[in-house]
Amino acid sequence: MSEVIQRTANGVDVISLDTFNCDRRTLCIRGEITQESAFEFALTAAYLNSLSETEAITVYINSPGGDIDAGLLMYDVIQASPAPIRVVALGTAYSMAALLFASGLHGRYLLPNSKLMLHEPLLGYPIGGNTSSIKTISDDLLATRDKLNTLLAKHTGKTREQIEEITKHDHFFTADESVAFGLADEVITFDRLVKEGC
């Protein structure tokens, strides 16, 4: 875990980068989205809301995606947080991470060379079992696809049909294409991010 050094009136403190960021009302979605990372995200967001329901929270995203149910927990937090949550893509936001990025209600920013990627839900394990079990898995996967496509349509202003067409295969968006498609609000530079804390 990365650490930072802070100078205080009592000398020097070494704290984790996560603690440093939390003190600045910043959360990170990095690496694969898991049940554990989603639970920690929800707890930290709840803590930040307990400190202030009016001061903005910034969520930085650099993730290949991951567990859909875990991602939907993060989605629920972003949507219902009393404190406004703005999102910033640093590098890549693929799959579930792209949906989380697109769902930002209080600003969706990306750096000029960041990329988003959308696709249909994938099975993360081999299929086995009897016909009824396989049908149940298939029905659940189709229902999940419909739910995710509905959410993407809501946050992009596109129709369900447009979303279904774009997610039939891995579809990569540059920063400018992300804005044009309605996945993002603005492309910003790193110096602006540092100065203004977007």
From TrEMBL:
A GO CC term attached to the entry: endopeptidase Clp complex
Superkingdom field: Bacteria
Protein name (database record): ATP-dependent Clp protease proteolytic subunit
Residue stretches in coiled coil: none
Keywords, sorted A to Z: Hydrolase, Protease
Protease recorded as keyword: yes
InterPro entries cross-referenced by the UniProt entry: ClpP, ClpP/crotonase-like_dom_sf, ClpP/TepA
Protein family according to the UniProt entry: Belongs to the peptidase S14 family.
Organism per entry: Succiniclasticum ruminis
One GO MF term: serine-type endopeptidase activity
CDD domains: S14_ClpP_2
Record GO biological process: protein quality control for misfolded or incompletely synthesized proteins
